[in-house]
Amino acid sequence: MKTLTAGDNAPLFELKNQNDKLISLKECLNSGPVLVYFYPKASTPGCTVQACGLRDSIQALNDLKVTVLGISPDPVPKLARFAQKQELNFSLLSDEDHAIADAFGVWGEKKFMGKIYDGIHRLSFLVGQDGKISHLFNKFKTKEHHEVVLKHLKQD
């Protein structure tokens, strides 16, 4: 697993969101930077806390012209249920074959309760309008993710 980092070109992608609408990173970049955050599985405790933190911070992110895109290997119907139940106000994208996770270098070996398996590592990328990754968020607790992102954005 070779994770992309600041200065790398972000892989351009088009994925379906929870509303079955195709979302393009290139199009999103037209309006400002994009926070691409990868999470393992919709409706799990950590992923819910992380998503709700971003939901509750969406106005501050919008004020900074930042678009939020959450990516997981979940199918569109599961994303739709998750978004509706948690009243999420940003796009969740379905990467069922984990091709985009592979391209960003976030798909790889994980350990949980003694088991080893392949899955998504919880990482976030801030992609600038030039299509380059301007920051990699790799040290945060799920409940503080939104705060870490906002603190970084306000420093720039």
Shape: globular
Name the CATH superfamily assignment: Glutaredoxin
The CATH architecture can be named as 3-Layer(aba) Sandwich
Report mean pLDDT, rounded to a whole number: 95
How many domains?
A: 1
First-residue to last-residue Cα separation: 29 Å
Instruction: Count all strands and give the number.
Output: 9
Family: Belongs to the peroxiredoxin family. BCP/PrxQ subfamily.
Subunit structure: Monomer.
Domain Thioredoxin: 4-156
Catalytic activity: a hydroperoxide + [thioredoxin]-dithiol = an alcohol + [thioredoxin]-disulfide + H2O
Kindly describe this structure.
It comes from Shewanella benthica. Residues 4-156 form the Thioredoxin domain. GO terms for molecular function: thioredoxin peroxidase activity. Monomer. By secondary structure, the protein is α/β, with parallel strands linked by helices. The chain has a single domain, classed as Glutaredoxin. Helices cover 32% and strands 27% of the residues. The protein contains six helices and nine strands; from the N terminus they run ββαβααβαβαββββα. The strands form three sheets. It has a five-stranded mixed beta sheet with strand order 5-4-3-8-9. It has a two-stranded antiparallel sheet with strand order 1-2.
